[in-house]
């Protein structure tokens, strides 16, 4: 391909991988649904390289996919075979931490955990945190508008961004590396690229907002009798305890499966719900709150982590790696008004069970952010595939005006269902934006819309 030769001569021989040099990992994100390698992988080291590569691909009419840490769960980075994948892995590093402005300027290919550690070393706190922190890149986090476990206190990835640089399909560099908290000078262009999953531009750098360190975090695991009690506990904890930095609920099936597999036992008997509550209030205040909630029956039992190691054990149940061994496991990521999540989970579980009586269905998630994840494992019958499960999970969700993606994005996997969460007018405006920024449809075609 002429384009490959042009890319090699523009970026350098070693920056363009083809054939066996590509490696299997570029065929799929962590959803495991991709099967095809891209035509080539290019690894730019500078913003100028990204710009040149995009211009050449756009002129040649060859599609491009951005590859970050490939931890996405929506198939957004999956190739279909004819694309050039732009891996941002060499565009890595922290350019500056400005303590006075409380900002970090970072290249898109930097892993999240590297940014968290650098912020902590500077005496500050990067509020974005998710289980894939060791591999996911900042560019991937922003292009998916990742959520994670600190949203309840600090908001989603979008809220951590003050400035952004992105390259359009034709190679134009849009540099909006703003450091100010307030800047209302016209349209806030960074939001076009945050959450658009690489369909409107390739993110190359960002200015992230940092916070004062939250102080010592205390982790508590609470046993709760009903979903309504979970919601009441959340509101009372926010109102009476304060400084809540995480609030995660696990339905019994999810908690039992993982705690059993991990050989961790926190309670003498099973409970319908287990909640991880984290606060930066002092231990004595937290203990007094827990005592009051146990006295009024809102909490059935509680374990206050006595060490970082015990807190990690509690989180390991929530992170739920044991469940990943179940066959054909699908992980859904939906949101709906918090008061309705319990009802939805029951209705969805019943519908799945009615169709596949031996299926495993379990629920957990960031309920403080109206977000619930659903693990479904079924043995497909003749003519069935993952979309048979989608139809049920999203079909029930439609009755609750929920969103088919709370935080993982649309990618390829949810594209056929986007119309359930967005109106015809919203979809038309999305298509107009895509056409305005990427008229030839070069960037991540077949994804999102
Ligand atoms: C164990 C585990 C836990 C997770 N927990 C959470 C969680 O709590 N919350 C959550 O929201 N997600 C979670 N995820 C999903 C995933 O980690 C996030 O979606 C993450 O933000 C993806 O980052 P990435 O660098 O791996 O992106 P990739 O998977 O490489 O790409 C994701 C999408 O972004 C695009 N993209 C990547 N880099 C760029 C760029 N520089 N410019 C433009 N587009 C780009 C890709 O084309 C693709 O469409 C989890 C995943 C795993 C495996």
Question: In words, what does this structure look like?
Answer:
The chain is of the alpha+beta class and 449 residues long. The protein has 4 domains: 2-87, Uridine Diphospho-n-acetylenolpyruvylglucosamine Reductase, domain 2, CATH 3.30.43; 94-209, Uridine Diphospho-n-acetylenolpyruvylglucosamine Reductase, domain 3 (2-Layer Sandwich); 218-321, Alpha-Beta Plaits (2-Layer Sandwich); 326-426, 2-Layer Sandwich (Alpha-Beta Plaits). 31% of the residues lie in helices and 19% in strands. The chain has 13 helices and 16 strands. It has helices spanning 2-11, 47-60, 112-121, 138-143, 151-154, 190-193, 227-241, 252-261, 283-295, 308-319, 341-355, 386-398, 424-437, and strands spanning 16-17, 40-42, 64-67, 84-87, 94-98, 103-107, 161-167, 173-176, 202-209, 218-224, 244-251, 273-279, 301-304, 330-335, 360-365, 371-377. The two termini are 29 Å apart. The chain binds flavin-adenine dinucleotide (FAD).
Tell me the structural class.
Answer: alpha+beta
How large, in whole angstroms, is the Cα Rg?
23 Å
Number of domains: 4
Describe the main β-sheet briefly: 7 strands, antiparallel
Distance between the termini: 29 Å
SSE ordering: HEEHEEEEHHHEEHEEHEHEHEHEHEEHH
Give me the secondary-structure topology.
Elements lengths: L1 H10 L4 E2 L22 E3 L4 H14 L3 E4 L16 E4 L6 E5 L4 E5 L4 H10 L16 H6 L7 H4 L6 E7 L5 E4 L13 H4 L8 E8 L8 E7 L2 H15 L2 E8 H10 L11 E7 L3 H13 L5 E4 L3 H12 L10 E6 L5 H15 L4 E6 L5 E7 L8 H13 L25 H14 L12
Parallel strand pairs: 2-4, 3-4
Antiparallel strand pairs: 1-2, 5-6, 6-9, 7-8, 7-9, 10-12, 10-13, 11-12, 11-15, 14-16, 15-16
Bound molecules: flavin-adenine dinucleotide (FAD).
């Amino acid at each position: 391909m002429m384009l490959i030769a042009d890319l090699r001569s523009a970026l350098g021989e070693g920056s363009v991988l083809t054939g066996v040099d590509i490696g299997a990992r570029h065929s799929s994100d962590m959803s495991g649904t991709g099967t095809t390698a891209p035509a080539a992988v290019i690894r730019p080291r500078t913003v100028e390289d990204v710009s040149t590569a995009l211009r050449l691909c756009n002129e040649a009419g060859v599609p491009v996919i951005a590859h970050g840490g490939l931890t996405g769960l929506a198939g957004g980075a999956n190739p279909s075979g004819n694309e050039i994948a732009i891996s941002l892995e060499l565009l890595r590093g922290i350019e500056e931490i400005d303590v006075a402005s409380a900002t970090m300027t970072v290249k898109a290919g930097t892993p999240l955990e590297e940014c968290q550690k650098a912020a902590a070393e500077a005496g500050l706190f990067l509020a974005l945190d998710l289980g894939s922190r060791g591999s996911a890149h900042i560019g991937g986090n922003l292009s998916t508008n990742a959520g994670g476990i600190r949203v309840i206190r600090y908001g989603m990835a979008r809220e951590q961004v003050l400035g952004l640089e992105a390259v359009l399909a034709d190679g134009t560099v849009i540099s909006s590396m703003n450091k100010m908290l307030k800047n209302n000078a016209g349209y806030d262009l960074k939001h076009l690229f945050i959450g658009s999953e690489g369909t409107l531009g390739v993110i190359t750098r960002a200015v992230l907002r940092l916070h004062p360190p939250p102080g010592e975090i205390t982790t508590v695991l609470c046993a709760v009798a009903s979903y309504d009690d979970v919601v009441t506990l959340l509101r009372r904890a926010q109102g009476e305890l304060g400084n809540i930095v995480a609030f995660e609920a696990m339905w019994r099936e999810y908690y039992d499966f993982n705690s059993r597999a991990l050989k961790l036992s926190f309670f003498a008997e099973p409970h319908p719900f287990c909640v991880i509550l984290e606060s930066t209030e002092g231990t004595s205040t937290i203990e007094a709150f827990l005592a009051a909630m146990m006295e009024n029956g809102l909490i059935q039992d509680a374990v206050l982590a006595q060490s970082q190691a015990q807190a990690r054990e509690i989180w390991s149940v929530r992170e739920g790696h044991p469940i990943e061994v179940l066959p054909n496991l699908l992980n859904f990521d939906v949101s709906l008004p918090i008061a309705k999540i319990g009802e939805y989970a029951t209705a969805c579980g019943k519908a799945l069970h009615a169709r596949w009586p031996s299926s495993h269905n379990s629920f957990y998630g960031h309920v403080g952010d109206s977000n619930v994840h659903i693990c479904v494992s079924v043995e497909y019958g003749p003519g069935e595939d993952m979309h048979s499960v989608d139809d049920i999970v999203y079909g029930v969700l439609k009755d609750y005006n929920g969103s088919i993606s709370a935080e993982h994005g649309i990618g390829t996997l949810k594209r056929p269902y986007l119309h359930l969460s967005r109106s015809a007018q919203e979809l038309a405006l999305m298509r107009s934006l895509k056409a305005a920024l990427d008229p030839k449809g070069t960037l991540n075609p077949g994804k999102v819309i």
